[in-house]
Amino acid sequence: MLYRYLKNVLGSARPRQWLKNLALLAAPFFRAEILNAGVLPRFITAFIVFSLLSSAAYIFNDVVDRSRDRRHPIKKDRPIASGRFSVPAALLTSAILATGTLIFAAANFNRYFLGTAIAFTALQLTYSLLIRNVIIMDALWVAAAFVLRVYAGAFVLPTPISSWLVLSTIGLSLLLAFGKRRSERTLLSKLHRRLLTRETLRHYPDTLLDSMIAMSATYTTLAYSIFSFQTSPTGSKFLTDLLPETLSSPKWALLTVPVVIYGVARYLYIVYEKKEGESPEKVILTDLPILGTVAAWVIATFIILYVL
Questions:
Q1: Which regions span the lipid bilayer (predicted)?
Q2: Boundary (domain end) residue, out of 109, 139, 161
Q3: 102-129 confidence digits (pLDDT tens)
Q4: Fewer C-beta neighbours within 10 Å, C or N terminus of the chain?
């Protein structure tokens, strides 16, 4: 009985989605503070807090959306939609998980982090109950959740945060949100079920989604390029002495811009050609070029910020 309950909780908690909470590391990572004494354990704890809050929200969302999920070709097998996880048990689990996690955050983090965690929880609840059915606003709510994650990470120490980093986060999250909806429309229209699942999909014309995806991709690369330029270290004096006068003040972080451009272009290829963008976290974990791009970006950025 306990095993079955824990299996249903884990299946509804969507641990693969916890990847989104790595956004908490953005501010300290780009401030080259992540390796400072005691910082990493603190952020691991913050990551767990937001992961548990996210899971509580996913369980609640599955309860609200269970009737539509039963008509979805993939979501119909989720524990709540399939009936394996009862609605009362799911609601109680979600409430206990969210409340307990917020109490833990209040006892172990400052009030700014706690306030952001509460705002994140409220954002998730309003999305499930109302915003998910409002065209365009649903994607903006997704972007807002990512921004709250970035600010929560900045509040942990606390540490300053670049406005251009926040803008880059908004662009990337909008790209993923609109790309997800575009892929969902493609998948469901093939199965002639477009009008029976996510309500907003019937209001999203393909031309609008294509325009928003193109805008978000451009916005992301531009914002990240400016962020890289403004925050880039110039490297050690030894490296600078080896360069000609033309490159006397190199902006090393700009070397990562082509990597980001390739990653964005690859994601667009996945959405439009492979038609697999309905699960961004799955794309990151299973598409080898995307996975390699993320790894290359992390390694290059780490070397630029922490080694040069």
A1: 44-64, 85-106, 112-131, 161-179, 208-227, 252-272, 284-307
A2: 161
A3: 999 999 999 999 999 999 999 999 998 9
A4: N
